[in-house]
UniProtKB/TrEMBL annotation:
Pfam families documented for this protein: ABC_tran, BCA_ABC_TP_C
A GO term, aspect molecular function: ATP binding
Annotated source species: Niallia nealsonii
One cellular component term from this protein's GO annotations in UniProt: plasma membrane
UniProt protein name: ABC transporter ATP-binding protein
SMART domains: AAA (SM00382)
Length: 258
């Protein structure tokens, strides 16, 4: 069953073609990798799915409902969340508060109720804190909930960004180069977390990643972009041995990847 469908998606900026006629079908509870050389159009593709850019043409369907061109906060409310290549946390507030910010789309209490500490607002606030703590436990950061986000290690900041994304209650989570800059221990920890999210919390994951060992290890399906166009797709073995992919991106040593 496909949870997300992309049909003929294109984006141009003036005379520059960033993406051209891309199709993608993502099965529920799967991990799909989007790979390609720098400048291939991967981040533009993510930006269209999440509402940052309006497609020039094409469709984006989430559970059969069109979402292409909607504002990012509406797309998030429908069930798509993301992390970024460059970490975007609120560094001066606590780890817990960062996760609570991710819940704002789902908190119903208004500002007056919060300021007056009305019973309904207080109850909802306590529930939100409990859920935020649960998410921090899940990503291994519960013992740092009162620490300023900017004081965390790089790997911990990545996991906090994921916890904040999970706080939006997504159906589909987009991860933009989640292990970039990580050491082997941090990479292993995040790889295990990605696989666990897909298997245990009813989540579908799409990721952009240059770590080909990780891509080949965890992906159910791989999409390859080059110069804004899809040049190949398939399972890890299909991509590992695809001559177009080897030429455009992976290099001749790709067939030796485990």
């Amino acid at each position: 069953m496909n949870i997300l469908e992309v049909k003929g998606l294109s984006k141009t900026f003036g005379g520059l073609v960033a993406n051209s006629n891309i199709d993608m079908y993502v099965e529920k509870n799967s991990i799909t990798a989007v790979i390609g050389p720098n400048g291939a159009g991967k981040t533009t593709f993510f930006n269209m799915i999440t509402g940052v850019y309006k497609p020039t043409s094409g469709e984006i369907l989430l559970e059969g409902k069109p979402i292409g061109g909607l504002k990012p906060h509406i797309v998030a409310k429908y069930g798509i969340s993301r992390t970024f290549q460059n970490i975007r946390l609120f560094n001066d507030i606590t780890v817990l508060e960062n996760v609570l910010i991710g819940m704002h789309n789902h908190i119903k209490a208004n500002i007056i109720g919060t300021l007056l500490q009305l019973p309904k607002s207080k109850h909802e606030e306590e529930d939100a804190k409990k859920e935020a703590y649960r998410l921090l436990e899940y990503v291994g950061l519960a013992d740092l909930l009162n620490e300023a986000a900017g004081n965390l290690s790089y790997g911990a900041q990545r996991r906090l960004e994921i916890a904040r994304a999970l706080a939006t209650k997504p159906k589909v989570l987009l991860l933009d180069e989640p292990v970039a800059g990580m050491n082997p221990k941090e990479t292993k920890m995040l790889t295990d977390l990605i696989q666990d999210m897909c298997k245990k919390i009813d989540l579908t994951i799409i990721l952009i990643e240059h770590d080909m060992k990780l891509v080949m290890e965890i992906s159910n399906h791989i999409i390859v972009l080059d110069h804004g166009e899809k040049i190949a797709e398939g399972g890890p073995e299909d991509i590992r041995t695809n001559s177009k992919v080897i030429e455009a991106y992976l290099g001749k040593g790709a067939v030796a990847l485990a």
